Amino acid sequence: MGDNKVCLTCGKSYKYCNSCSDSQNRVYWKNVYDCEECKDIFEIVSDYAQNCITKDVARQRLSKYDLSTKVISNSNVKKYLDEIVVETIAVNNKKKSSVINTEDKEIKG
Amino acid sequence: MRNIFLDYAATSPLSYKVKDYITKLLDVYGNPSSIYSDGIEAKNILEEARASVAKFINTEEQNIVFTSSGSASNSLVIKGLTSDDFNLNKFIPICSPTAHKSMIEACNSCRYKIFLKVDYSGRILLEHLKNVLDNYVKDSELRPLVCFEAANNEIGTINQIEAICDLTHKYGGLVLVDATAYIPSCKVDMACWECVDFLTFSGHKLGGLKGVGVLCSNQLKELKPLIYGSQERHLFGGTENLLGIASLGKAVEDYDYENISSVGRDFVWNYIANNIVNSYLVGADIQEQGEVDFLERTPCNLAVCFKGVNSIELVPLLNSKGIEISTGSACNNFENAPSHVLSAIKINKSDVNSVVRLSFSGQETLEELNYINDMLSKCVDRLRRLSYRK
């Protein structure tokens, strides 16, 4: 059997069948997500999209995943991820630059 | 909160009473066909169960045959009345296109067969049945065997049983009614359903163990065996599934229809109709969504289409929230093909993968119902926002 499913989160094709004897790790979410990480990311993004959690909470919950290596081809998920993660990077950069400025000031002073 | 099981149309749990009873029977190892005391003990248990099932549907014990499933019972009747030998065959199956796969495929395996038409709700069109009987059967040497479901297992609509039986009998035919989806929530009284020649149902949807089916008929002598052997009137051979049969006998002993209510189904449907846009009750007239008539439906079934939501995604998402529902018939869940029931009622093609079935026990608490509504709303919204498969 070839790939028969497409992950709801990342869009990657994968193989899973409820009735085939060679399908390993029979868990309900395998019908929709290719890995547990994708399942968790979808949960976080959808919680955020529905205003069930704040951006800070979403950011904190996503922090344990290495999103820099993850290719997300679901544009709907990516849009929210960008909203959470890209802005986080911008905020972090802003914080960093304000620290540098302070240091600069201190040096100059 | 514990898991909320909303797939009673697929199966049902064992009650404490049934568990207790079958646990005690684990030491009964006699073969009911043996004539020494252990065998007789087993035979007595078997016959007690038969008496209990007969009483449950108000018929004679001699009319009850135990098989291995509702599917086996359907196959026994269809294959038992028809023959591949042209000279020996006396019946032509005429089948509902929304029937259970076991009925459809048994009819399909016959040399001659006709499939009926249904309306948008899944009910057999009587006019079409009459046309079929007039045009194909009236002057034929073959007698019609009309096969259909009392209630549809996916969408819960109830057929016009007496009318179909009366019409078929006028043409000298016989009727096979699959009551598997009907009997868990609607009482069957064979004294009132004398017109039904063969009635079948499954045991595990009534609180029995899996692996037991029932065939009820006072015309069993018309049938050929499905499995050869001396058991079950020589129609379904093999040592009986004593534990399974006994569990069914015990489960129906005090089966309580009074406690089965449509309140939960109606509560959830009212919420969906008023709060989840672009959703509709499957098999109902879409123009009249405000006034859906549930009278011709089983009280615990709710088949809903959430437009733009893929049901294959909605089911696991709700599962992650502790709610277990189905994409349709449990028997179809492993297949990628669209449901034959939804195809037969000509549901909009773009909606065919957006239908889910909620089947209630009828005893859900208000807290559970509110949680179901909340999660349905959230999960449908999540998929509409985030899924790229529309």
Structural write-up:
The complex is a heterodimer of chains A (109) and B (390). Chain A has 109 residues and is mostly helical. Helices cover 51% and strands 4% of the residues of chain A. Chain A has a two-stranded antiparallel ribbon with strand order 1-2. Chain A is elongated, with a radius of gyration of 19 Å. By secondary structure, chain B is an alpha/beta fold. The radius of gyration of chain B is 22 Å and the shape is globular. Chain B is 34% helix and 13% strand. The A-B interface holds A 4, 6, 8, 11, 17-19, 28-29, 31-32, 39, 42-43, 45-46, 49-50, 52, 74-77, 80 and B 312-313, 315-317, 319-320, 333-334, 336, 378, 381-382, 385-389.
What labels describe this entry?
heterodimer; A: 109 residues; mainly alpha; 3 helices; 2 strands; 51% helix; elongated; B: 390 residues; alpha/beta; seven-stranded mixed beta sheet; three-stranded antiparallel beta sheet; 11 helices; globular
The Cα radius of gyration of chain A reads 19 Å
Number of beta strands of chain A: 2
H/E series of chain A = EEHHH
Q: Rough shape of chain A?
A: elongated
Task: Please indicate the percent range of residues of chain A in DSSP E strands (runs of 2 or more).
Answer: under 5%
Number of strands of chain B: 12
Query: Given the C-alpha coordinates, what overall shape of chain B results?
Result: globular
Span between N and C termini of chain A?
70 Å
- Main sheet strand line-up of chain A: 1-2
> Sheet bearing the most strands of chain A, described?
2 strands, antiparallel
Count of alpha and pi helical runs of chain B: 11
Span from first to last CA of chain B? 31 Å
Question: Which secondary structure elements does this structure contain, and how are they paired or packed?
Answer:
The complex is a heterodimer of chains A (109) and B (390).
Chain A (H helix, E strand, L loop, with lengths): L4 E2 L6 E2 L21 H14 L5 H8 L12 H34 L1
Antiparallel strand pairs in A: 1-2
Helix pairs in contact in A: 1-2
Chain B lengths: L3 E2 L10 H10 L11 H20 L7 E4 L2 H12 L9 E5 L5 H8 L5 E2 L10 H12 L5 E7 L11 H10 L3 E5 L19 E5 L10 E4 L25 H12 L9 H13 L3 E3 L19 E6 L4 H10 L2 E2 L15 H5 L10 E5 L6 H21 L4
Parallel strand pairs in B: 1-11, 3-4, 3-5, 5-6, 6-7
Antiparallel strand pairs in B: 2-8, 7-8, 9-10, 10-12
